[in-house]
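agent: user wants the structure for Solute carrier family 23 member 2-like isoform X1 from Crassostrea virginica. delegating to structure tool.
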Amino acid sequence: MNDREVCVPLTNRGTENGRKDPPQEKTDVIVQCCASPRPLREGNEDVSEIARQLEYRVADIPPLHLSFLYGLQQVLLSISSTISIPIIVSTYICAGDLELVTAEIMSTFLFMCGVCTFLQCTIGVRLPIIQGGCHKFLPAIAALMKLPMWECPDLTVSTYVNATHLNMTNGTSNITAAVSGLDRTEIWQSRLREIQGGIMLASLTQVLIGATGLLGWLLKFIGPLTIVPTITLVGLSLINVSIQFCETQWGIAALTLFLVILFSLYLGNITIPMMVYRRKEGCVNIRYPAFKLLPVILAVLLAWMVCGILTAADVFSDNPKALDYQARTDANLNVLRNANWFFFPYPGQWGMPTLSAASYMGMMAATLTSIIESVGDYYACARISGESPPPAHAVNRGIAIEGFGSLISGAVGSGGATTSYSQNVGAIGFTKIASRRAFQAAGIIFLLCGVFGKFGALLTMMPKPVLGGIVVISFGMVTSVGLSSLQFVNLSSGRNLCIIGLSLLLGLMIPSYLQTRKNIINTGNTEADQVLVVLLSTSMFVGGVVGFLLDNTVPGSTEERGMLKWKKQISSDTADDKRKRQRVYELPYVTDFLIRHKVFHYIPFLPSFRAFRHKKETTKNTKL
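agent: tool returned. relaying tokens verbatim.
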């Protein structure tokens, strides 16, 4: 077997939309398949080389059991970051001490993360993307809950008053009634409903941005000098997040990081003998590349076991205020104890959402930064998955579906919105699994974690330093993917070096400055202050905008800017070639129907919109 061949157990491995790989020996059960990766498109050697290193590309379909195993890897990467949002939101809405309330909000949030992930992978941008909780909304929620009308009342008043007899439509009535002895349930539900209304309206705006094609129109002005700072700063801006996880126990974090590197890089080519059953041949021996395909699960299990041993030996402090307490395997035992066995979220479960200008403006600022980060993640995911950059219709649809998912999340009262997770994009680089089906399985696992509360709570018990070791390498991969786009630009040009340097430096400097000067922005309007603070505190927004403005205003040839090589990835001589390159972004089963009917040629988020443009270009070239 040459070094390009891979041995993996498969069923009838094929691809979606009816496309299959070259014929292989058919079987009804697991078999060993040793085959070189399929030939890739010419004309894009860099993307092809990335694709050759993957075990499963985006359209490949692993066996069902492996899909869920690979999906579990992605869930383990993101679930701790996701559950932190409902826990924090619970404190903002005066329910931090109500563990059952926190557990119900958490179950709702996990359920919606599963729904949004499945929708995004299936009918959204159709790349392997995990939709997790968006932390960008937390500053907006915190600022909203600090307003006088929403500050937590004196909860020492224990006199019960039936909340149904009171008018709770405004914050003033809320405060007065609470001090008088309002039912505790109405206190947190009224605040959560205010958050819901802001998220729903901002998410509806995001749906319109994607559905109208506004974002797709801007893509023709976006090149490598905009993408590089945006994606790179996604990774660099999350340094503090990595530290927060790792500082709880640096030794465990380092162990986890070492294990991931050991399994994915040093032992990646080592296969393990396994016995599997075949219907025709009985038990047979195969060799499975477990280290290459399951580095995260193996590293997490081993590091988690070490934490369990050290917890039993009382090596870690049992003081909840101590940093290394989060390295204990029983640190989140209360969450498991208080979680419901079954929980089914539904729209309006906390009551009718309320709306205000303050909540909408704050959430809208977070939504804009989330959109920018998601676009960067789409490009990073396409590149790390060995696919061509996403076309405009896929980006439009991805943003619209992300907004739709957040809209539903607000309606059911999850306490937050969803966005693409950069750490899961980076994880593709060392797990070598880019299969869309595996990420759809991850969405189903998230959904089950929400419905079966005990199962979700069990996964949340992963020690924080274990997750810290995983996110370090994931964020590092995102950063390197961003920098890899520099290959398209002329790095001998002073113009390009200046743009890259300024965008990266300002993207780090301005948010860092605002963290140390909390009240430096004062326009006299609270809502405007909130919007500016959220936007300017987001590194990828600052760096991306600086790179975008300078790249499109400073004189420079298209070759110097890297636009020629950049567009070569998504351009071709004919419309048929373009469609072949971008088939991975097409909607399943309906694309041919959409292309045949002209009424769908004008809808910016459908693949037929792209086909309509190709038809016009081909006609124009024919006339010439």
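agent: one observation worth passing along. Residues 6-20+41-553 form one domain.
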